[in-house]
Amino acid sequence: MNLEITLRVNGAEHPLVIDTRTTLLDALRERLGLTGLKKGCDHGQCGACTILLDGRRVNSCLALAVAHQDAQIVTVEGLAADGDHLHPLQQSFIDHDAFQCGYCTPGQLCSAVGMLREVEAGWPSAVSDDLTASHVTLDDEEIRERMSGNLCRCAAYANIVPAIRQVAQQAQEPLRTQQVGKEAQP
Fold first, then answer.
1. What's the CA gap between 92 and 159, in Å, rounded?
2. Which residue among 86, 92, 103, 130 is least crowded, i.e. fewest CB within 10 A of its CB?
């Protein structure tokens, strides 16, 4: 059965008539031409199709398009604020050579953006020392655990963690500066 829907992707609305069984992955790639996200395993196990759905990372191969017509969808093509500047994670992946073939990179980037939002919100992971802490320190073990749903088959793993760590540290720097300023006040 076909259904008329509108998907909000990367800030633009896209009216579509699609089969109700169409996944977000297929709608985005095949119907809207957003080929940054990749079809890897088609079972939600590799993370190559990761997108941001209302700010949260989701494997688009497991989500039906008809269920998300009111959601804000962001693909790797929509991460950059504008056409002239890359998202900090995109730049960090380049700086750290955190990709080789590039197949998993779009999913890695979307997942890392979502992961940093989860950390900012104070969500613990399976390796967090204190599950009730309001602040999560992103060390390499935390990053590896939180990114474990995204697989890289060509060995860029070694550079992905430092690329994410750099952006996380840059994001936390203003917080550290505020803390130092508060401690210095009488």
1. 10
2. 130
Instruction: Scan for tokens 């779009």, then name that residue.
Output: 106
Hey, what amino acid is at 125?
A: S
Of 59, 76, 56, whose CA–CA distance to 24 is shortest?
59
Q: How many whole angstroms separate alpha carbon 48 and alpha carbon 37?
A: 6
Residue by residue, DSSP assigns 47-76 as -TTEEEETTEEEEGGGSBGGGGTTSEEE-G
CA distance 46 to 149: 6
C-alpha closest to that of 64 among 16, 106, 111, 108: 16
pLDDT (tens digit, 9 = 90+) per residue, 1-26?
A: 999 999 999 999 999 999 999 999 99
Mapping DSSP to helix (H, G, I), strand (E, B) and coil, where does residue 139 land? Answer: coil
Can you spell out the DSSP letters for 146-185?
Answer: HTTTS--SSSTHHHHHHHHHHHHHHHHHHHHHHHHHHHH-
